[in-house]
Amino acid sequence: ACDDGNTLDGDCCSATCDFEAAGSACADGDACNGDETCDGAGLCEAGAPLVCDDGDVCNGLEMCDSVNGCLVGMPIDCDDGQFCNGLEICDPTSGCVSPGDPCLAGMVCNEGTDTCDAAGVCGNGLLELNEECDDGNTVSGDGCSATCTIEIPPTDGQLLYSQNCAFCHGDFDSDPTSSFIKVLGARTCSIEGAIYGTTAYPNGVPSMQFLQGRFSPEETLAISEYLNSQVVTGMQRYVTACSGCHGIDASGGWSNEDVRGESAEEITEAIFDEDDMIFMTCLTDSDVTDMAVYLASLVDDDGDDDDSDEHGDDDSDDDSDEDSDDDHDSDSDSDSDDDGDDDSDDDSDDSDDEELEVSDRTRQTSPLPTSRITRKKGN
């Protein structure tokens, strides 16, 4: 009936070359495959693979061995070593479960000594367990809060900065272009814009959203005063206030707007005219001037002034510096000295551009309102 090339039984073709009965074993030697059986027509049919999972996670992960079949898993150790979490147990379905604080009501768990101690009473004048301070009352605002935690004085900007900002922004008085995001010279509007949102980041800078609601206006001012407690260069003010949108080198950055060479007047006009920048109204006149000087230096570094000098070398007139702007400054070309009048007077009388007059601004504590800007149109 069959001849499988051997005279062995157990492979569905017997030693006498007859089909072995259906259901007779024809094992392949792998216990994990299940029990193989003959179909009665010379073929060995695969068995059902072993399922070793017993459904109890506490027993660990059961495995199948090809020789021995299912093996018991390694039981789970639920003890996390933390006394105050209580004695953990294993649930067959969900695994390890912590019962929580093992101490009775009125007691405080002490992880350091693995004991349950009597709770301290805030306001009794004694420094007891879990109290940072106890000044004999439960009134906040006196340095020790109503819950006996130390209050940070709202005027201590250095401490506020160190505890809330330094781990991201680093040592604020080091190189502002280093790997840390520098904030030297930040004013209150820049700090609040980063935390609560600007047009660029409507909900605040993601990495600073955790600070929302943390600082009072007095605390924000204290941090700003600390960040302005030493000399701040124009470059540092630019990096802090503007580089996030315009790039470290002012060539465009995220906004794709090159601001190299922008004057103080242009910066001020942009702050009050552009929605994206209106939040920066707390910058002082000196802040803007310092940034403008820095941005002008970037134009010098690009060689623009050198080009102007080359055009002016062939002009023997005394006002060659202004005439040399041919093909570079349309205002200088159109307002020439033919009538003998002062160039600056002609420019101011005939200009169709808006001139922005900004009154002296109240500094840090009182940002300049938009209503204090006056614009004059030329005829």
User: What general form does the structure show?
Assistant: elongated
Report the major sheet. 2 strands, antiparallel
Q: What's the order of the H and E elements?
A: EEEEEEEEHHHHHHHHHHHHEE
Q: What gap, in angstroms, lies between the N and C termini?
A: 116 Å
Radius of gyration: 40 Å
| Overall mean pLDDT | 77
Find the structural class using helix and strand composition.
alpha+beta
> Would you identify the regions where 5 or more consecutive residues have pLDDT less than 50?
305-379
Helix content: 25-40%
Strand order of the largest sheet: 1-2
Beta strand count: 10
Number of helices: 12
Q: Strand percentage, roughly? A: 5-15%
A few lines on this structure:
With 379 residues, the chain is an alpha+beta fold. It is 26% helix and 8% strand.
Describe the structure.
Helix 5 packs across helix 8. The strands form five sheets. A two-stranded antiparallel ribbon has the order 1-2. The longest helix has 18 residues. With 379 residues, it is an alpha+beta fold. Helices cover 26% and strands 8% of the residues.
